[in-house]
Design brief:
Number of helices: 9
Strand content: 15-25%
Radius of gyration: 20 Å
CATH topology of the largest domain: Rossmann fold
Distance between the termini: 38 Å
Number of domains: 2
CATH architecture of the largest domain: 3-Layer(aba) Sandwich
Shape: elongated
CATH class of the largest domain: Alpha Beta
Strand order of the largest sheet: 1-5-4-2-3
Structural class: alpha/beta
CATH superfamily of the largest domain: P-loop containing nucleotide triphosphate hydrolases
Length: 269
């Protein structure tokens, strides 16, 4: 969810929280720059019995230091584990599922592990949402994050809402129907950080064999292919990375470096 003013923020919060409370879900709000008292006040002003929901345990508002940034910094693996723990706790408490909002503005600050935020967003679809009765919104405040960064992060979701965001030079998103990534645009030196995040997903995802759909990728340079190939190689005997709809630039690179055939498999040539 991308927004740029307090009115939009309040509308998104109240609509999402109201739906969760009415569905019998437990609702959690992970604040960063917003004071928890302000979240509760916005809900109360919209006619939601926030105090009663907090008292019953159906609603909680915590801060990033207790969630995303618990410990020494941001750890995607630890945060993914917290989603599973939270969903189990919600069901144990008698709720139908878990619904959450997370403010992501901390990702634009000098926070330990913030460079792994894109990797985390790309892993969520298959490693969390495909496994749990969980509904969540990642909140991106354009007043606190650059348009380019918001564009990269928002594109990493299967679904995004709110204000239009600037299209990044390279978009990476999870495939909706199988473990893998959809890459579109151009992958080169200027997008090396996005390529590195995609490679991290390829190398560490617990969702199964990863596949890349490159049908919308106009260009892939040798350095980007090397990063992805190294990630796919992993330990000896690892499974090759499947690539569909490979662009001409990748096919030329595979002809130049035939040794990559052992770690990159183009399945539609």
């Amino acid at each position: 969810m991308v927004f740029s003013d307090d009115r939009q923020w309040a509308a998104h919060v109240t609509g999402f929280v109201r739906g969760g409370l009415e569905n019998g879900e437990q609702v959690q709000y992970f604040a960063d720059t917003t004071a928890p008292e302000r979240v509760l006040r916005a809900l109360t002003d919209a006619g939601i019995d926030a105090a009663g929901a907090v008292k019953s345990g159906q609603l909680s508002v915590s801060v990033a230091a207790q969630t995303y940034l618990a410990g020494s910094g941001f750890d995607p693996d630890a945060m993914i584990g917290l989603w599973f723990d939270g969903e189990e706790a919600a069901r144990t408490a008698g709720f139908s599922g878990l619904r959450a909002i997370g403010e992501m503005s901390w990702g634009a600050r000098d926070v330990v592990g913030a460079d792994r935020l894109l990797e985390y967003e790309l892993r969520l679809h298959h490693e969390v949402f495909a496994c749990l009765p969980l509904t969540a919104l990642c909140f991106y405040d354009r007043r606190l994050m650059s348009d380019e960064y918001v564009g990269v992060l928002a594109s990493a979701h299967v679904a995004h809402q709110g204000e239009p965001h600037t299209g990044p030079a390279l978009r990476v998103a999870p495939l909706a129907d199988r473990p893998g990534l959809l890459m579109s645009g151009s992958a080169g030196y200027d997008t090396r950080h996005t390529v590195a995040a995609a490679a991290a997903v390829v190398s560490c995802s617990a969702a199964g064999q990863m596949e890349l759909d490159l049908g919308a990728l106009r260009y892939l340079d040798a350095a980007s292919l090397s990063v992805l190939a190294d990630a796919a190689a992993g330990p000896p005997g690892g499974t090759p990375l499947k690539v569909r709809h490979a662009p001409a630039s990748l096919r030329r690179l595979l002809q130049l470096f035939p040794e990559l055939d052992s770690v990159v498999e183009v399945v539609d040539r």
